[in-house]
Design a protein that fits this description.
alpha+beta, Ubiquitin-like (UB roll), Creatine Kinase, Chain A, domain 2, 2 domains, 7-stranded mixed sheet, 16 helices, 19 strands, binds glutamic acid, binds magnesium ion
């Protein structure tokens, strides 16, 4: 039986029952990095009342300078979990605060705001994730290679031998996921060489985001225990499928606990309700700016390319929806759930989920019409042909996505305002939209990578324009 804490009393009981000696108390910054401190379990009362301090500037991107007061992490009992692979250790996540107040740069706080907005409308946002990752290694020359050197078939998806050679790793992972109570229902060898996916059931958005963070940490740790490196990088190899982080979303009635996206009488035959279609229409309407939040790195856009026979991708290039069709951005493969295939796990799941909910709610508020589902194999069309059919194309680069994000007032509103430094370097000088802060961060990231001259472009341009 998995114990789920709702209060500090539950946490104390779980500590007692499981001989917990230490707690990793963590929070995630804007790029998605997790930061933790090790706290002895004997300090649990202080940890949950006062929190634990971090120098925010050292922790990553969370709107702080070297002069800023500490980030205080106050853990959320609901995220308290016994770490399955390390006896005596528990893990807990919380929101970042500063001087006792919620810190508006904190991605978990931003998601909470959106979740509460939906609750105010009587809706619970539930979401599941499919986090793909690759098990890699470096060869003698330092080159990145697939950890299992025999995993080099052109169509390795579901390959029983590839799964068998990683049996120890995949079964260990599956056992841990079951111990966490996340109802693992399958682990498979995915479409890329060295690529795996471990599926868990969906939950409330905050719970799922916390799970995603812990899941990633767990996969990385278990891989290391098996002498490998697990990567969630969107596109580590040019000629291999990328790593997606698909979201499967639904809105539920808070009172009746029913899925409001399910409609068995849907005239389009996809089992989706009018509310579901409007939510999907909202995501499509905001898709270009949304991409900056769910596909948030330079590398993300090397994944978002149409598949060919030679290089499979299974990712969207155009802003479309369809039934059980993997070339579409939004796939309605089963009743009452919308799968978005755009996201990857190179950023914060809190920000990604918040973006999906904000865009979807906007579609509902504006009663957007989505039109008929697209049934084509969209990989047969070039971007030019897609445009000629009137189908919008997703951004080709991070800088393009950020450009659209800056123009998106729905995201400006949803992500709120953040304090900026005053003229004397002290906090409280003024406010700006979080979106502007985020846009600067991502523009700098784009330039830091894109401005470097690569061997590939030297080969291409050295003698010829
Ligand atoms: N690996 C693909 C991606 O990057 C998805 C494959 C699948 O359909 O699961 O999104
Ligand atoms: Mg997959």
């Amino acid at each position: 039986m998995v114990e789920k804490a709702e209060s500090i009393d539950d946490v104390r009981r779980i500590i007692e029952d499981n001989d917990i000696e230490f707690i990793f108390a963590s929070f995630g910054e804007v790029r998605g990095k997790s930061n933790a401190k090790l706290v002895p379990a004997s300090q649990v009362d202080d940890l949950f009342s006062e929190g634990v301090g971090f120098a925010g500037f050292a922790a990553g991107e969370i709107g702080q300078g070297p002069h800023s007061p500490d980030i205080e992490l106050v853990p959320d009992p609901a995220s308290f979990r016994v770490v399955p692979w390390q006896p005596g250790l528990a893990h807990v996540i919380g929101d970042a605060r500063v001087e006792g107040d919620a810190w508006p740069y904190c991605p978990r706080h931003i998601l909470r705001q959106q979740v509460e907005r939906a609750r105010g409308l009587g809706l619970d946002f539930r979401i599941g994730f499919e986090a793909e990752f690759m098990l890699v290694d470096r060869d003698e020359s330092g080159r990145l290679v697939i950890a299992d050197r025999q995993d080099n078939w052109p169509k390795p998806c579901y390959d029983v031998k590839g799964l068998t050679r990683q049996y120890d790793f995949v079964t260990q992972l599956s056992r841990y996921v079951s111990e966490l109570g996340w109802e693992n229902y399958a682990v498979d060898h995915e479409d890329g060489n060295g690529q795996f996916e471990c599926n868990v059931t969906f939950a409330d958005a905050l719970e799922t985001a916390d799970r995603a963070v812990f899941f990633r940490y767990m996969v990385e740790t278990v891989a290391q225990q098996h002498g490998m490196l697990a990567t969630f990088m969107p596109k580590p190899f040019t000629d291999n499928t990328g790593n997606g982080f698909h979201y499967t979303m639904s809105l539920w009635d808070r009172e009746t606990e029913t899925n409001l996206f399910a409609d068995p009488n849907d005239s389009r035959g996809l089992g989706l309700s009018e509310l579901g279609y409007r939510f999907a229409a909202g995501i499509l309407d905001h898709a270009r700016g949304y991409a900056a939040l769910v596909a948030p790195t330079v590398n993300s856009y090397k994944r978002l390319k149409a598949g060919t026979d030679a290089v499979r991708t299974w990712v969207p290039v155009s802003m479309t929806y369809g039934g059980n069709n993997r070339t579409q951005m939004l796939r309605v493969a089963r009743q009452g759930a919308i799968e978005d295939r755009t996201p990857d796990f190179s950023g914060s799941p809190y920000l990604g989920f918040a973006a999906a909910l904000a865009a979807g709610l906007d579609g509902i508020e504006r009663r957007l019409e989505i039109g008929e589902p697209n049934t084509a194999n969209l990989y047969e069309f070039s971007p030019g042909q897609l445009r000629r059919q009137g189908l919008g194309v997703l951004p080709n680069s991070l800088i393009e996505a950020v450009h659209y994000l800056e123009k998106d007032d729905v995201f400006r509103e949803a992500f709120g305002k953040v304090p900026t430094d005053g003229p004397d370097g002290s906090p409280g000088g003024g406010f700006e939209d979080f979106v502007d802060y985020y846009a600067r961060l991502k523009q700098d990231e784009f330039h830091a990578i894109n401005d470097v001259v690569t061997a590939h472009e030297v080969d291409r341009y050295l003698q010829f324009p």
